[in-house]
Write a structure and sequence with these properties.
Elements: H1 2-9, H2 15-22, H3 33-37
Length: about 60
Amino acid sequence: MDEIIEMAANVVPSERQLKWQELEFYAFIHFGVNTFTSSEWGSGYESPEIFEPTALDT
């Protein structure tokens, strides 16, 4: 376990990762069944029929 912690503590980002971070712009958009239930987390029992993106304009 100590070895894993030591390795994790010494992780260095790649040049590519640093360049991405310097962009300071990111977005994560999640569109799914929970969008229609106004819930952050689903229970797994939601009906798939409620997923109706009829007016979706991305």
